[in-house]
Amino acid sequence: MKQNIILAVETSCDETSAAVVVNGRRILSNIISSQVPTHQKFGGVVPEIASRKHIENVIPVIDQALKEAGTTMAEVDAIGVTYGPGLVGALLVGVATAKALAFALNKPLIGVNHLEGHIFANFLAHEELKPPFVALVVSGGHTSLIHLKDYNELELLGQTRDDAAGEAFDKIARVMNFPYPGGPHIDKAAKEGNPNAIAFPRAFAGQEGENKFAFSFSGLKSAVLNYLNTAAQHGDAVCVPDVAASFQAAVVGVLVEKAIAAANHVGVKQLVIAGGVAANSYLQTELAAAAEQNDIALFYPPPVLCTDNAAMIACRAHYQYLAQDFADLHLNALPTLKLGRG
User: Fold this and answer.
1) Where in the sequence of the chain do the CATH 3.30.420.40 domains occur?
2) N or C: which end of the chain has fewer CB within 10 A?
3) Going residue by residue through the chain (342 aa), what tens digit of pLDDT does each one get?
């Protein structure tokens, strides 16, 4: 079987990444240049700064990816790139670079949905994994349930009505004075706390009908903020680990309930987690226990493939390459690109 070599570029937020992947499953290189130290002092990503850093880093990162893979541009079969969703300026850097490479080398150009890339990261970590399955996508910008019927056939089952789970983690972490990115710090603090200490609300839990696979975390975020503000006004001591554990339990409880319900609803026995929040240890533990009770196999990537990276984009691009799903040189950044296709 001929080896298909994909060079992919990812610049949707604050990581500049390039990767070389063979046949959609074998990573030859996956270079990630993180901007976390740059944005940390601002408490979050500053879009204009992120774009400038991508411009500085994208070519050196691509060169390093090719060098580490022991591959030349001539040996690459196609160029994959994230074109949405994400920060428009950041996306434009990657898209422009990929289009230039595709044009100069006369190689196919493949536009990849960033969120689909997160789902496909699981294929890189689990050689035995194949569709169909349900994917729980949990990141800073999105919380969705997807039925992956085949490699190029996805159905959106439900998504958040407001804040994403990762966004709620980051906002609560900021108020609790944890450094950016805050999610891992909440996860760590929660290990010392009691998840039942504070009864924070769980929106749409146990719901049927149109809310069956919908999420909402804005009310939970407000409840935690109100709890902390009230304690500060009254001069009451706050047990940070208990707040972190109770907040995390409220988020994870709803995620687990709906993910298992979705898998049972479509009749699949495989469930994957994708996105930055997939690295949360409490989510992994709780979902593993629920999956076992329902005779469902659970998969999630290692931490390096949970966060933004180009290897997952190359994996997704490989299956689009096989389907001849190519873009032309008019490909543009789509910051609000939706997830799911028929």
Assistant:
1) 5-119+306-322, 130-300
2) N
3) 578 999 999 999 889 999 999 999 999 999 999 877 778 777 778 888 989 999 999 999 999 999 999 999 999 999 999 999 999 999 999 999 999 999 999 999 999 999 999 999 999 999 999 999 999 999 878 899 999 999 999 999 999 999 899 889 989 999 999 988 888 999 999 999 999 999 999 988 766 666 789 999 999 999 999 999 999 999 999 999 999 999 999 999 999 999 999 999 999 999 999 998 999 999 999 999 999 999 999 999 999 999 999 999 999 999 999 999 999 999 999 999 987 653
Please state the pTM of the whole predicted model: 0.92
Helix (H) or strand (E) holding 253: helix 240-266
How far is 341 from 42, CA to CA, in rounded Å?
A: 36
Encoding tokens for residue 340?
Answer: 């799911």
What is the C-alpha to C-alpha distance for residues 12 and 342, in angstroms, rounded to an integer? 24
CB 301 within 8 A of CB 270: no
Six-digit token pair at 56?
A: 């500085």
At 267, list the tokens.
């009749």
| CATH number for domain 130-300, candidates 1.10.260.40, 3.30.70.1450, 3.30.420.40, 3.40.630.30 | 3.30.420.40
